[in-house]
TrEMBL record:
Membrane topology: Multi-pass membrane protein
PROSITE patterns (alphabetical): MFS (PS50850)
Lineage, opening ranks: Bacteria, Pseudomonadati, Bacteroidota, Sphingobacteriia, Sphingobacteriales
Domain Major facilitator superfamily (MFS) profile: 19-399
Residue ranges crossing the lipid bilayer per the database entry: 20-45, 52-74, 94-118, 149-166, 172-197, 218-242, 254-273, 285-304, 310-333, 345-363, 375-394
Compartmental location: Cell membrane
InterPro entries reported for this sequence: MFS (IPR011701), MFS_dom (IPR020846), MFS_trans_sf (IPR036259), MFS_Transporters (IPR050171)
Protein's name according to its UniProt entry: MFS transporter
Keyword terms: Cell membrane, Membrane, Transmembrane, Transmembrane helix, Transport
Superkingdom, natural source: Bacteria
Species, as recorded: Mucilaginibacter calamicampi
């Protein structure tokens, strides 16, 4: 049994390119400092004494900046390449994370948050294009899962450490988050020197027809549904920590543990799960299951009795929801691209998450102010089920034989 398990893990991680591993190491360092965003709402309410609506507005500005950053990043990836975009985004994002720790007024923090997110989130399309460049048809989903593993291992470290640092001083979060961004940029320059990367990138063939992502109707429908899913998922990152603190009276340390549990489960399970599932069924089947499972998790927050056990159950369900949905969402969009339009497709996918990052905190905070957390979880459970139904019908449309 032990040897079978060891072989299973070996098979799951084999066959990935060296540069895919390097990109994941850079991502791990970067995400190990992910502390500001999950604790930002609590910081605004408890340290800066903002209202819950003001805190939601600050988080919405993360989304506005991310939307602009994703669009700009996607355009620049197809012009200057994914390498320079990654380095520039990491360095500028790191500096702005440190800067916003000194901003105290609502207006100043709002402006700083927007600029930070614009710089920081322009990294996403570039990173997605880089992963696609260094993978092939047989390992694309696993390459993205390896990157997600790095993100979530970093999330586990950052969430756990962030809870501890927040109990000492919230200002430490901004310094650690900023410094890890800068260290990640330096590491990228060291592991993948620019001259070496440039040799692996072929210039686009100008004769190649470039299909626009904005004319791909199946992809546009996919993006709308992905945005609905992302709006729901961001409640887990943004409003659920506030819920656990205000409504269920958990400590920052326990909230940090729940974040670490999410990342830890993904690190241990996702790569092996994807290795066993990939190619067995249509990608859309796994996406439908994951999105629906997320809806069940949110509904359970209204049904289960408050307590640590209920919180763990919900976090585990949300974690499996994202493990089923997100890797196959990535492989779905990348399957519709060519090397010459990948930045545009990556930007549109990143923009869907950025748009959700705008809507989720603003809408969520206003729902809480109007009807409390119970109404919030009923609404977002329903939206999750609606998105799952939408993906089911999209799957049926794609399965129809061409006439």
């Amino acid at each position: 049994m032990l040897s079978y398990t060891a072989q299973l893990y070996k098979d799951a991680y084999s066959g990935l390119s060296k540069n895919s591993w390097y990109l994941s190491i850079v991502m791990l360092i970067n995400r190990s400092g992910t502390m500001v965003v999950p604790f930002m709402s609590i910081y605004c309410i408890q340290q800066l004494h903002f209202t819950i609506v003001q805190a939601g507005s600050i988080m919405a500005l993360f989304g506005v900046g991310a939307l602009a950053g994703a669009f700009l990043g996607g355009k620049l990836v197809d012009k200057i390449g994914f390498y320079d975009m990654q380095v520039g985004a990491l360095l500028s994002g790191g500096l702005f994370f440190i800067l916003i720790g000194f901003l105290q007024s609502f207006v100043a923090l709002a402006i700083g948050t927007f600029v930070l997110s614009l710089c920081n989130e322009s990294f996403r399309p570039a990173n997605s294009a880089a992963i696609a460049h260094y993978s092939n048809d047989t390992n694309k989903t696993r390459s993205y899962s390896l990157n997600r593993l790095a993100v979530n291992l970093g999330w586990a470290v950052g969430g756990g450490l962030g809870g501890f640092l927040a109990s000492l001083s919230y200002h430490l979060l901004f310094w650690v988050d900023g410094c890890t961004n800068i260290v990640a940029a330096v590491l990228l320059l060291f592991l993948m020197p620019r001259a070496a990367v440039a040799k692996t990138i072929k210039k686009p063939d100008t004769a190649t027809i470039k299909t626009s992502a904005y004319k791909d109707n199946i992809y546009l429908a996919f993006i709308v549904l992905a945005t609905l899913f992302a709006i729901c998922f961001y409640q887990f990152m943004i409003m659920q920590p506030v819920f656990f603190k205000i409504d269920w009276h958990f400590s920052e340390q326990f909230i940090g543990f729940l974040m670490a549990l999410n990342g830890g489960l993904i690190v241990v399970i996702e790569m092996v799960m994807i290795h066993k599932l990939e190619g067995r069924r249509n990608k859309m089947v796994y996406i439908i299951g994951g999105v629906g499972l997320g809806g069940i998790a949110y509904i359970l927050l209204n049904i289960l009795p408050p307590g640590a056990a209920a919180a763990v159950i919900v976090v585990v369900l949300v974690t499996f929801a994202e493990m089923f949905a997100m890797p196959f969402m990535n492989s779905f969009w990348i399957s519709r691209t060519t090397p010459h339009n990948r930045g545009e497709y990556a930007a549109l996918y990143s923009m869907s998450w950025s748009a959700a990052q705008i809507v989720a905190p603003f809408f969520g905070s206003n729902v809480i102010a109007f009807g409390g957390f119970n109404l919030l979880w009923w609404i977002f459970g329903g939206i999750s089920f609606l998105a799952a139904i939408g993906y089911y019908y999209l799957y049926k449309i794609m399965s129809r034989p061409a006439i």
